[in-house]
Amino acid sequence: MIDPMEELHRFISEDDLSDDNVVFELSTPSTNWGQLAIDLPDAWQHTKGEGIMVAVIDTGGPNHIDINDNIFQRLDVTGDGPEDKAGHGCIIGEDLIWTSNNGYITIEDFYKQTDYEQLLIDIGKNSEIKSVNNQSIFTIGYIDEKFNKCKIQAIHKLVYKGDIYKISTENSHVTLTPWHPVYKKSDGVIKVSADTLEIGDFIICEENEEILFNKIISIEKSHYDGVLYDLTVDSSTNYLSNNILVSNTHVSGIIAALENNIGITGIAPKCKLITIKILDNRGIGSFSNMAKGLELCKGLNVDIINMSLGTPTEPPIEIHNIIKQLTDKGIIIIAAGGNNPNEPVNYPAAYNEVIAVAPIDENKNVAGFASVGPKIALAAPGVDIYSLYLNNGYKTMSGSSQAAPFFSGICALILAYDRKSKNLSIKSYQDILKILDTLCDEKTSDHLSGRLKGCNFGIPNFSNYMPWKNI
Fold it and tell me: Residue 417: helix, strand or coil by DSSP?
């Protein structure tokens, strides 16, 4: 029986828990020192992680301009409610959208009539996502201060019980969940949630392909018990519903931050993420939530699972059994080794089927706060790493929680190239471990042997990757 009270913790260095840390903006691209340490530019000549799906089991997906479009789905097992409240939204089924296949159509009919390439179902949240990325269906989005056709990547359906807001202008109306962002005129254009709008505000609308700022004349709040819908739109973060511009539902930063000429770029900027929230807002969770999060991964068609969390206490056998079932399906699981040098490697990283990662600094020394031991498979950059933070900010952070996703991004690149080249030689975590034997520098393995005694590998470096070394 799983003890629901046993606590799991996210592994961030204690130094990074202080309020004194600077949260900053990055308006121009910035490169983590760790990306150069693993010779990432060499890897990007061959792949950027296309076609790979990574499940991030953690505190949930950030609502951040530099990652949103790479998050394909957000799931939650904590009971705090859908992570959508951080910035996603939905509209009711009768609201109209324009599509290149159907012209004007209600979003509910569009969902029912459209075939899908992949269907993701979250039974716990009564939600579905139809992936339609390869069908070249377009809608209208707002890009570079004008309306353009944008490809629809996915259609979302969510059973919902709660408040909704009917926002009416002189020419139209749209019905939204409270947290659904819309575009308001206020010293420029800003994105705000529907529940903050007031009568008299001006919001972006469209008429004859021209931009209008229409005045809100009424706001009706009511209770709703039914089905909601939304879109994920490529090249845009919005679309038109009833000719009113609303934000789309976006599809964690070190793995897959967007290559968009701002902020940071993730290790594998073309991979997609599914975030699964099993830790609460304090970064604390339980074995029962870990089991639920891992169980979800069985039906999500993921390639890699990243877990920047753990505990020194060995979990119940049920957790280990689920992990073995996942790795038997060929899913690669990567976890943070821990942040206490006086403790052995934490679980789930300590399982043989999980690849455990320890953090290093810019001088390739193992971090003083790292948990170490023979269970550590390799070391990756994890000290003073630029990371996404709240309110579209960035923060320098340290911990094995930073090192684990660094390696998850590396694995995404290796898997993507293996499939792109049609080698198809990677079918299990054991195959990844074999690649590490050549990918990691021998010199770094010797360098790390002091603190990481018994560590099988050193620090990955893509200049050693044999499949493209002689290209």
Answer: helix
Q: What is the pLDDT of residues 20-56, one digit of tens each?
A: 333 333 333 344 666 666 777 777 788 888 888 888 8
Cβ-contact 137, 117 below 8 angstroms: no
Q: Report the alpha-carbon distance of residue 132 to residue 418 in Å, rounded.
A: 25
Average pLDDT, the chain: 75
Measured distance CA(81)–CA(178) in Å, rounded:
13
Q: What are the CA-CA distances from residue 335 to residues 309, 338, 374, 458 (Å)? A: 7, 9, 15, 16
pLDDT of residue 386: 63
Which amino acid belongs to residue 32?
N
Q: With beta carbons less than 8 A apart as the criterion, state whether 202 and 212 touch.
A: no
Six-digit token pair at 387? 């990371």
* Those residues with Cβ within 8 angstroms of residue 51's Cβ, 6 or more apart along the chain or in another chain: 271, 416, 419, 420
- Sorted by sequence, the CB contacts under 8 Å of residue 285 that are 6+ apart come out as 7, 8, 78, 278, 279, 309
Structural domains of the chain, ranges and CATH numbers in brackets: 7-78+252-469 (3.40.50.200), 89-247 (2.170.16.10)
pLDDT in tens, 182-195: 888 877 777 777 88
Contact assessment for residue 292 and residue 322, using Cβ atoms and an 8 Å cutoff: no
Helix (H) or strand (E) holding 71: strand 71-76
The answer to whether the CB of 249 falls within 8 A of the CB of 69 is no
Averages of pLDDT over runs of 10 residues in the chain (471 residues) are 48 38 36 67 81 82 54 69 45 91 93 82 62 85 80 83 89 84 79 85 86 92 90 74 75 44 64 80 75 91 89 91 96 90 89 91 82 83 67 63 86 89 85 80 49 56 64 41
One DSSP character per residue, 89-144 reads --EETT-EEEETTTEEEEHHHHHHH---SEEEEEGGGTEEEEE-GGG--EEEEEET
Cis peptide before 374 (omega within 30 of 0): no
What does each C-alpha distance from 319 to 289, 345, 348 come to in angstroms? 10, 17, 9
Tokens 């409610």 belong to: 81
